[in-house]
Structures are given as C-alpha cells and as structure tokens.
Amino acid sequence: xSSLLTYTIAGRTLRTLVxxxxxxxxxxxxxxxxxxxxxxxxxxxxxxxxxxxxxxxERDLAFAASTASKTPSPGMNASGVTTAQDAxxxxxxxxxxxxxxxxxxxxxxPWWQVDLGTTFKLDRVVIFNRTDLxxxxxxxxxxxxxCNVDGTPRDFHLVYQHSGDVFYGVEKNAxxxxxxxxxxxxxxxxxxxxxxRCSFALDEVEVxxxxxxxxxxxxxxxxxQKSVGPHxxxxxxxxxxxxxxxxxxxxxxxxxxxxxEVVQRGKELARRLSRxxxxxxxxxxxxxxQQLEQRLADMEKxxxxxxxxxxxxxxxxxSLVREIAFCNPLLDFDRLLFxxxxxxxxxxxxxxxxxxxxxxxxxxxxxxxxPFGPNPKLVDLLSHSVVERGRLAGRxxxxxxxxxxxxxxxxxxxxxxxxxxxxxxxxxxPTSCYHVFRVNADGTGLVQLTDGP
Length: 453
Fold this sequence. Notes:
By secondary structure, this protein is of the alpha+beta class. 21% of the residues lie in helices and 27% in strands. The chain has helices at residues 45-68, 83-87, 242-249, 256-273, 280-302, 307-325; strands at residues 3-9, 12-18, 22-28, 42-43, 101-102, 107-108, 111-129, 143-147, 157-161, 176-179, 186-193, 197-198, 201-209, 223-225, 335-341, 363-369, 377-380, 401-407, 413-419, 435-440, 447-448. Helix 4 (256-273) packs antiparallel against helix 5, helix 4 runs parallel beside helix 6 and helix 5 runs antiparallel to helix 6 (307-325). The chain is flat.
C-alpha cells in the first residue's frame, strides 16, 4: 500500500511514494509564516527518529538478503524471503483483507500448507480470502488436501473441492467455512491448492479440531508453499506480526560491509554537494565519517565486534549521511506545509483517487517546523479555524478529506481542496466532490471559493 507525497518548491513539483497515508506538501522559506491561529507545536523528533530507524533496519535486511542470494530461486525471492517465511503469514493470526502469503505469479497448481504438528480429527477449516484489488475470484476453485505423515505428494488426498462460488473474508465477514465435523477427516498437514495457473494468495487460514472446536490449531504453526515471487513478504502484507517484528528489530545482522557502503555514499554525497556550498560546511561531518571509517577498519581487523556494536555504528553512519544530505543548499527553508489524507477507496485507476466519493474522511492541513533539525515540531494549521464564507460557513473542516495544497510565492496564502467525502460511487454532488478553499498561512481567514457538483 502506497500513497503520494508531493513537494512544491517555488513552482517546481517533486513526487515520491510513502506508505500508510497520502501527503502533499509545499515548502516555506524565510519568516513569512505568521504564528497566530495555529495550534500549539507538538514535538515529533522522537517519533521521526523511530520511523527513520525502522527504515534503516529494513535497508539492512535488504542488504543482507541481496548478499545472501544474488540469483533468486523458486524457494527464495530477490529480497531473501523463503517459501516458509512467506507462508507463515497465512497462519499468523492477522486478518486485514490483504495477502498473508503470495506464491509466484501465474504459478501452475500452486499450494500452501500448514503442519499442525500432530494428527487431529478436523472440525472445520476457515479460509479468509484476499479481497483487495478485486482478487477474490482467483480462488473460487480452491481445494483442500490432507495427509497424516511428513507430506510427500503421494501422501495427500482430496477432502474438499469448492463449488466455484466466490468467497470473501474480513471485508464482508464472509470467509469460506468448510465443515468436516461428521466426516471423520484426520490430518497432520492441511494443504490448500488451486488447480491450473494462479497467482495464489490468501489472507488467513484457520483449522479447528473436534477435540477443541474453539482453538485454532494452525495458529503460529510451521507453514510452507510451492513458490515465492516479488509479492512475497515475511508474514502478512501491510502488517507486522510478533515474529516479523523480532526479525525487523534485528535487521540483517548489521554487516560491516553494509556500514562501509553507507560511509562511502556519504563521502561521495559530501563531495558533490561541496561544489555548490562552502567546503567548511561539511568539514566536521567528513571528519566524523573518517573517524567512523577508521573504527570500522579496526573492527574488521580484530574481528571482535558483536551485533550490538555493529548496530550502533551502522545507525551512526546513517545519521551522519542524513546530516550531509540536509546540507544541500537547495534546502533553504525551515518549514514544511503538508496535508494528510487517508488512502482512498474505490477501484484502482488513473484518477479515481481524486474523486470525492472515493475519499475516506480524516486528515488535515499541517506545518512541520525545523524539518531538518533534531527537534522538528508539528502544527495543525486548521485546529482553531472555522469557515468564514461559503456553503460550509460556520463549520470546521475536521470530518472530510484534503487534497492538493498550493502555497503562494510570498508564503502567506494557502489554497487546498476539501471534500466532505459523504457520497457513494459515481455520485456527483456538493458533498461528494472536492472544492477549493483558501486560508492564511497562520490558519486565519478560512473561506470556501468553489461549490457545486
């Protein structure tokens, strides 16, 4: 799941992808932003540092995976995810409508299975389908096979073939429930399979025995699947399970080779930026990098650096390179204007995310002060603002969706779009469309400029 981040710098627009929420931003330069009506600034430095460290851990995992497997195999993808790691998301207890596991795209006769550890007499199997992006029909021909031993192909036998009707999961509270209560079906390994070619993905699989019909005996058990692909992840897509959180916290082992690569990139970045800035601006940072580089060399020579030390020096290197990047002379502003909006609903297409009837209420108009410093502060610009003119006069804009902020060149006026987000699919009405609003940069003078369907 990704969202769009838009920066506007003196008429130039840059875009990138950000997970979770959709942000659009403009940049303040100099002291033109007044401080009159906005809310009290909220320190967010610690939260931003936590997010940065999470990103650095993911990068360390990716480095370790690329080092371990330069040539992906059917049992491991380019990110180093194995079939067992991906399959674990099918029985980790997380149900969100996305995929808990995902075999290779277009795999022939793909399967997923869970080892219950011992043989159980089955009461029922509950299958929560993947329901995002209109993918639910892919599994309409699903079948269930079982075996009571270690699980070679000849040991499995078919115990259920689905009718061909589409089934769902958490989205419509309509998972497929296959009842085995009076059928004397015993299994140690439960396998789900799709005949023919399919990009097989499910959200979650639960298995219940007649001994205790309320306990999911598949939860947290070892799982596997036929193959992995680029959409395979450790655990459930869009979530971090307890097992995966432990993996993330340990990164990829913090190899010294990775930290050396980070240091080298920092030195090259400083060399490029110093052509456009006074060289002494980078001198202390480069000195710190050189000292860190020497520490790395000493660690390599002694071979005695444990993981705690390697992690610490890796984070130091990342922090130094980040400081160097923020010395870019183009970053000559001290406040960042942005909107927050929730991921829209509706179909995925070129423009549907911009329709008000697909918008999900929630978000706002914010300013981040000192965004490149150690202690940035967040300000909600509209927390005390009431619409002064237009159909929504007298109301606060706290129950709709925001889009497309634009900042005037003098930094004093903001234009943005807002929708009440109350319409249904393809409803063109005043409450389901976006309208243009104007507000002063201090949150005063909020007015509605446009209206109608």
